[in-house]
Write a structure and sequence with these properties.
four-stranded mixed β-sheet; CAF1P_plant; mRNA splicing; repeat
Length: 433
Amino acid sequence: MLLLRRARAPPRLPPRRSLSRLLDRYGFVPPASLTPSPREPPRAAANSAAAKKRRAKKPPYRPPSSLDRGGRPPARSDLPFDFRFSYTESSPASKPIGLREPKYSPFGPGRLDRPWTGLCAPAVDATLRDVAADDPLPEAERGLEEARRRERERVLGEPLTPAERAFLVDKCQKNRTKRQINLGRDGLTHNMLNDIHNNWKSCEAVRVKCLGVPTVDMQNVSHQLEDKTGGLIIHRHGGQLILYRGRHYNPKKRPVIPLMLWKPAEPIYPRLIKTTIDGLTVEETKQMRKKGLHVPVLTKLAKNGYYATLVPMVRDAFLTDELVRIDCKGLPKSDYKKIGVKLRDLVPCILVSFDKEQIIVWRGKEDGSLQDQTQKSCPSVIDSDDASVKNETRDQEQTPSDWSSDESSGVSSSDEIPDDKPVISNPDPSRVI
């Protein structure tokens, strides 16, 4: 029985070594990438992933600093005038009584070879100026003025013919191009000069739109635009100007204009409204200010409007009334104070009050001493403007008779200040405290 049971038992199968006999025949060793790796604990995997992220993290981007010039030398500009933040809203004649902060240059430390005096970057070293001298304009500055005049005449070339002028004016209209330089409450700023030259690269003329405080004295705006850019205003209609670059303008030889990186702090100037008006007692000053608030309003100024007709309106009102009130509700406080300063110098008149967003001005006493003092100072200012008006007068003679005055000349619009009336450059806008 035992033998029968052993014979009936099934034969044993050989053990399974592998699915393939290649390992036994050739001794093949698989690479490490094919062998399964033991599973890592989740905490270790997270730590390794965090380590990879830390190793692969790039340094944060740092923009270039205005303090680091990269070893480059300071910029040098041959423009023959003092660099100011605003050329229409500031005047070298206005002297501050202090500075609000140290003399930090708005061009950046070491980026300009001119020193910053707190008001401007003079073209001639300030140490060469002699305050006690009879002639306040040194010989070096007179040489710069003469060089600027000759260069401007060379670039402008021959006067434009009426057909050329009409073609350029039509080419710069709103329905033909969107190129426009906006001149706002800060007036003609230094960085705006660079914008004008950038537009002159691809077009012969550019449109300038003027709104706000500078439009009180459009003659000053026109003069500063021509003087600082070297161009010529060939058309003016209201607050819109067309500035022509000249026949011989070369964009590749444009002047170097270093940009201001920030707006400089305004200096401190004397107060505009004094406790007592000159020539009046304390009681008379109080009564005049109370009376001024009840005077009928001459006009109401709109925000960012066009104010070129304001000076003639005030002059005409002074023929019948001694006090004039102008409503400035809605305007920023600094704006209507700047307007008051312009009225004081252009009309001329005496500032009485800025209370309740109103500009109240007084024409002065009947003896006319204020008008006489202003007329004495006018010839010197008018003589300095003759050079800029000479080219425009010559161009106006060439315009056909069927053109309107606004379309034929750059500054011959009806709202322009006549030549026989005093023209005084605007004071510094920071005069307003």
